Amino acid sequence: MANGNAKTHKFMSVCALSLAGLTAFGSVFAVAAAATAPEQVTAEAATEAADTSVFHYLYESGEYHVLSAHEIEVKNGDESVKVVVKDGTVADAVKAAGFTLGETQVTYPPMDTKITKDITVRILDAKTVELTADGETKDVLLPYGTVEEALIMGGVKLGKEDILDVKRDKDISKVDAITIKRVTYKNETETEAVPYDKVKENSDELELGETKIGTEGKDGEKAVVKKVKYIDGERDSSETIAEKVIKKPVDEVTLVGTKGAGSTGGAGTFTDENGVEVSYKYKLTGSGTAYTAAPGASTSTGAAVYEGGVAVNPNLIPYGSKLYIVSTDGSRTYGYATAVDTGGALMDGSAIVDCFYFSYDACMSWGRRDVNVYVIE
């Protein structure tokens, strides 16, 4: 019987110390799980813990359990009340403080927020605003402040890039309705075509001016990663952030006949009339003629005629090519020129170049002669 009294006395001491601890510490208490065996937490250990920490033990059914609580401050205007709440929500703290919300009042954090340490609850005056967001329209109570503050304190999810039909810093008292459009981003991978290029190659197996597709062009493929912007679930815009070719394109090769034109078919060098050695991509040898036109007349490329601008077959010599033209015997030099024009004689292969002069007499002096046309670039 004496042992029983001692045990009861020790239990009452632990409880007393635990309750004393609740009063003495008067702050947020950490909650711990119960010790499941009496031998793991002795009465002496519980007594010592109650004297030195915020952990408080209750002896029940042969076990020592840890009690916990939170001290919550509830503010309503100038009035402030502190209450101790073991767990629950903001609504429980408001009730414990003895406050009742009016029809145009809300709490921050919202009433269904779970109690945590160091939380302060504020009761705020609010107004009813028609809110359209996430596919629905409803009336919500929002506390006074700016639109952004009111939405956040009213428990409305608001993304940094969400689009509002009113300014975020506008006073909520001047707003009756708000529409929020949700902005989200998603990385998406798409497959896109890689267009093939068109290239030309000279062929001495085809007649001068004749063309033939040597290789069919085929588009390649690339994987493109895009950052896609969605507004209320609808795709708005995208930005490419990475891409990788997964299938290379095949160039379309057009063979251009040079048979009879004396094409060397390869690169080399020549010495111009000033003694300068110049590199060229390829050389054509054939008949060269001359033509004239009134000043200001247009060429096939749209440029006005000028001496140094010559006519060619663009299948043999692309427009814009830089050339050097000299007779095969070296007796006459037209010099440096640019391919800007064309004509019937060039397209039917009866000439490989038609050199422009403003003077009719200069044309007659040039006449028709065999020339070397060096394609420089």
Automatic annotation (TrEMBL):
Residues 1-30 form the signal peptide. Residues 180-260 form the G5 domain. PROSITE patterns: G5. Keywords: Signal. It comes from the Bacteria. GO terms for biological process: peptidoglycan turnover. One of its GO terms (molecular function) is hydrolase activity, hydrolyzing O-glycosyl compounds. SMART domains: G5. It holds the Pfam family DUF348. GO terms for cellular component: outer membrane. The keyword Signal applies. PANTHER family: CELL WALL-BINDING PROTEIN YOCH (PTHR39160), RESUSCITATION-PROMOTING FACTOR RPFB (PTHR39160:SF4). This is G5 domain-containing protein. The lineage of its organism: Bacteria, Bacillati, Bacillota, Clostridia, Eubacteriales.
